[in-house]
Amino acid sequence: xxxxxxxxxxxxxxxxxxxxxxxxxxxxxxxxxxxxxxxxxxxxxxxxxxxxxxxxxxxxxxxxxxxxxxxxxxxxxxxxxxxxxxxxxxxxxxxxxxxxxxxxxxxxxxxxxxxxxxxxxxxxxxxxxxxxxxxxxxxxxxxxxxxxxxxxxxxxxxxxxxxxxxxxxxxxxxxxxxxxxxxxxxxxxxxxxxxxxxxxxxxxxxxxxxxxxxxxxxxxxxxxxxxxxxxxxxxxxxxxxxxxxxxxxxxxxxxxxxxxxxxxxxxxxxxxxxxxxxxxxxxxxxxxxxxxxxxxxxxxxxxxxxxxxxxxxxxxxxxxxxxxxxxxxxxxxxxxxxxxxxxxxxxxxxxxxxxxxxxxxxxxxxxxxxxxxxxxxxxxxxxx
Length: 384
Ligand SMILES: NC(=O)c1ccc[n+]([C@@H]2O[C@H](COP(=O)([O-])OP(=O)(O)OC[C@H]3O[C@@H](n4cnc5c(N)ncnc54)[C@H](OP(=O)(O)O)[C@@H]3O)[C@@H](O)[C@H]2O)c1
Hints:
By secondary structure, the protein is of the alpha/beta class. The chain folds into two domains: 3-144, NAD(P)-binding Rossmann-like Domain (Rossmann fold, 3-Layer(aba) Sandwich), CATH 3.40.50; 151-382, Orthogonal Bundle (Rna Polymerase Sigma Factor, Chain: A), CATH 1.10.1740.10. The chain contains 15 helices and eleven strands. It has a seven-stranded parallel sheet, sandwiched between helices. The protein has a four-stranded mixed sheet with strand order 9-8-10-11. Strand 6, helix 5 (121-134) and strand 7 (141-144) form a beta-alpha-beta unit. The protein binds NADP nicotinamide-adenine-dinucleotide phosphate (NAP). NADP nicotinamide-adenine-dinucleotide phosphate binds at residues 9-15, 39-43, 62, 83, 96-98, 101, 119-122, 146, 200, 202-203, 205-206, 264. NADP nicotinamide-adenine-dinucleotide phosphate is lined by residues 9-15, 39-43, 62, 83, 96-98, 101, 119-122, 146, 200, 202-203, 205-206, 264.
């Protein structure tokens, strides 16, 4: 059977690696995967090359000027504005859009009863209470692409009664480029320092999130939303080699872990092939050279964003949406050189302190919460 794939965020880190997996699988078994649709923000040159290689039926480009430019440069493919208009073409939709902009793809893929290969954690975090009921749509399922949640997904398959048998989820964190450093030492770090991730090559937003441990915090909320595990049963352990991607501890004391060398090709392939495993091996381990695996507790005083995410998750309602929006604003400002690295956590603390306690019951509520939190974060940044 041919699996039809719609790829949202095709020009980014997840997007281009998804196309690597499709290419590799089709080399082994021609016609295994067809890319029916591509979506991007504005990176037209990359999109043109992808259209030439993968011949999608439809392409969505968010930026209006870029969309018109693409229409001038390419023929024989339908060009639309909104990523959600490509969903119907596919069996599986990969959401590799960055940030809150990925919300529509997450919601409409589930509403359409399709498999969602979810890399865009921000949509699930911001809209958890509204996304959850959509998972009951016949045919709808989320298969996580985030490597930690993909690891948990694989570990949880070993239990027939996870509700009864899971004692805790252990999310591993590389620790990012600033592992082991004090808050004082990090006062003046620059954008280039924060972008120098030791084990993963990713887009800029998630790379900065990894340097603050906000990424791990958001992943704690993501794990809670995906698996329904209470926050006091989700722990984070720093593991600098990024070989153990996460673990599940069971009621009988067993811990089951998923290991592979750090590459996103593996979790992307897992989500594309699920419930089968793809035939191309990615990230296999040479056990004769892998000399050690280290683990340590996270430094919550220096990396305040991790604790903040637990706080927001426990508050629930729109608090995770507020935190995620505040973080997006702060990270963008940091990348533009307008605030210091330490201020990312300061902005998030200040925004979360103003949370209004709302519970979202519709996507409109989630969008409103995102906008309110962004406005507050922007004012806080301006006042810095
Ligand atoms: N990269 C990783 O290894 C990794 C690992 C785990 C999870 N994730 C998650 O995956 C998601 C994507 O991360 P990434 O690192 O791949 O980001 P990235 O490299 O920055 O790529 C982002 C993609 O989103 C598109 N995009 C941006 N704004 C858009 C909009 N308004 N509408 C439609 N598309 C838009 C971009 O298009 P343009 O290029 O045209 O702007 C690009 O294709 C994030 O949620 C991240 O947390 C990533």
